[in-house]
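Researcher: Go.
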Amino acid sequence: MGISLVCAWRACVFSFLAAFCLIASAAEPQEPQGELTLAQAIETALRRNPELLASRYELTAAQARILQAGLRLNPELDLELENFAGSGAANGVDALETTLSLSQVIELGGKRGLRRSVAEADSDLISIEQRARQLDVLAEVTRRFIDVVAAQERTRFAAEASRLAQQTLDAIAARVEAARAPIAEASRARIAVTRALIEERQATTALRSARYALASLWGTTEPAFTTANADLFAFESVQQFAALIAQIERNPDITRFASQARLREAELRLAQAQARPNLAFSLGVRRFEESSDNALVAGFSMPLPVFDRNQGAIREARVRRAQTDAELQAALTRARGTLYAVYQEMTTARERAESLRNEAVPQAQTALEQTQNGYERGRFSFLELLTAQQELLALRAASIDAAADYHQLLAELERVTSEPLTTNDIEAPLP
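Model: Structure:
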């Protein structure tokens, strides 16, 4: 049934990480129609997901903050009027002195460059957080795609169960007419048919809901695709757990702490630079109305760092820097614990799915066939036949659930490591 989910996920992760910058600028894809692959679902969601579209404004805003942080302080124009509207000799404007001056603050300590460094570090952090959000969307698309594939399998399985129940009812009805079986068996067979039809309708409803949930990730209220093309029972080799630990540190959830550390370092340097006072120079011209003379005026000012030397801001910046290191270690510890737990669950789910599909289901199928033959010869009762059918149906349903669990857990591992985990070669990434 189509391509392997694992191989498709691996190709999509690699393609996403390699072409991250091209996704935002590429032309918007058409709504997926007909047969849908995981690659098409991911590509469409990454370009049309409403949350991702909204998050891109934050990166644009961060770039605007870089521009603002690099601007120089504006000069100031000052007009001062003295000695007018007084009494005696200062009556009216006869003794008026008018001073027009231009002043400029000179920032010391490289404050403008440091402000820009803070803004750039903040922009880098936002960019990494956006990558993390895109990986979240990628993982969620994969999970919902798997839900659709599993729902398709359950729907197909429910239809087969309905046909099996109907075939059993037809066979029993013929036996009842031939007086070879009691009427009660036909009644029980009809109940089994009714139950199978109800479960088939429930499976169809669940499939419809899964399709809508998947399409909602690219902002569509009515899915245009008809089927999800993937093989739920394709299991590929996965890397050993020891090889996955180092990959955690390349996850955007972890690398963001490196960018955050650079941001905290830039904030600390800026706080230290702000402890140095700025200089203010002014130059102007003064007019004396009484003598009609003009003169130049010049000024200089500088705050005296006696009480406020920005001690609190510097201390806070140092604490924030140390806090980032502590948060990094805590995040690594959580990620490693999650990786171990999910890896173990994934391995167990794969073993369970393979055992059910390759051993238990064939054995149950054989047992059902033997029971059917024995029932036709009168060696087994209808209750034994019904039990054999229910055992086969239960094992098939369990195999679907186990396979879906495996792929869901593998997708979670891919999200934790943001690396492909399968060991087989893959095709070239999508453009």
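Model: The first helix runs from residue 5 to 18.
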